[in-house]
Predict the 3D structure of the following.
Amino acid sequence: MASHDRIELAGRLLRIVPKQSPRMLTRITLYLVGLALSIAQFVMIRDFVSILYGEEIVIVLVTASFFVGLSAGYLLSLRLSDQVFRALLVISVFLHLSFPFSYRYLASWFAAIEVSGYLYLWLLFIYALLFNAAFATFLPRLVSDAAGASAAGGVTEEQRLKVFYGLELAGFMSGFLIVAASWSRPLVDLMTAYWVAIGVIVWLTLRRWSVTAVYIVAAAVVVYWFPTLDYHSTALLYEKKHGLGEAEVLFSVNSPYQRVEVIETPDGDRRLYLDGLLNLNSSDLSSLNFYIAEVPARLMNPERTLIIGNGTLSSVPKVHQYTRELTSVELDGGVLKAGQQFYTTAEDLKGIENWSLHTDDGKHFLLTSKEQFDLVVVDVPSPLTIQEAYLHSKEFYGLVARRLGPNGVVAVQLSGPLQRNDRTPARVTKALRAAFPEVMAIYSERADRGFAYASKSLPFSVADVQGIAKGYEKGGDFEVVGPETIDSYLDETVALSVNSMDLVLRRGWERFTERYFR
């Protein structure tokens, strides 16, 4: 939808709404407040999780701040005079027109001057108040204002509260549908709907055309410049906070699951970020694909291969030649879209006839598929959130084991080298060991990562892996821990499992405090 079409739609709404009865106008106001709250929740949580980097502890912190903002609004709602409420509402709605640019620019500035981490927390909670407090005041105030009329009409305040809250909740659900429609689309579409709803709320609350007209003009200007401001503020954030130099934003969308961004650095490296966390970069993607997919495929020549994750699809051209049938399963359409635009193009996949792609959850696919595979490659992010950690758990590896043939192999990424401690590589390896009798772990200096292969009976040896890696490493450090010694590395750890996800919060907290409070 073009900018002038969005502005015309807003004008039509403002012409229609005032024709309704006062009772209906109150109901429309509450419905729109709920709608705005729903969109505000999505935008604020997604943006601040990305700004602060999306570990589980950050998701918890940002979500908590959102509800603190709501609580502050409820607390202040009946303590504000009508005049103060109206003044704060006007200030708040015009500040909303600066979202999401203003807090990105502030976070970039904080990073440039190297401020204390506490200022980032202040930024988070101040914007939580700006996002939510004004909207949260409406329900208590409208219930209170209607108390006299309710008593006269035989309607109790409790009954009116139920009706009003139901309207706000209906608006919230409608806002969620608008958010869902915006997934993997430009953010301007969602923000336009948000600002239109706020514009109607302003008119219904203040009944002042002068303020509403100024708001409409300001909103139209922001909508027009939105794509430029959106990409510039995002690029500046990566330049200052991630230290990437003159970064260029090639791709940025909100998928149903995360913020997906592709950033190009001055040296041409294309980096894929998920919720502000670096997932991979084009410069070492080849090494990742080599060890997690190509090595086991070359050693096995599997009949059927399954790749879970690898949304860039970059393993497909590497593996298809070694297997008769290749299946990819990736949940996030946003990652797939980024991958096909910037990592593995249609030309790269052209002519690969033994490959099929399923957009599905890996767990769901394993539970519903009746096929048996000889090689399963699990190429998913490190366990920094609960959802990601499940894909590294012994329960998930148990599902994989049920889909593998007698000599089938699962290949996974360990992030770092396997050591005798309680860190991520050891926890993931222990989870593999709980599901498979034989596990082999490797570490590649060139890939700067650790990997593991597991099976009921591994069809290749340590010497086989060393032989195929020797020519690739070109003198770099390469370590292998074979099945016969793997258990000696796992004495000090417990398997990552559904009932033992402490690693997610512990590792997230360590990274968060080191980043902001070191």
Q: What stands out?
A: The mean pLDDT is 91.
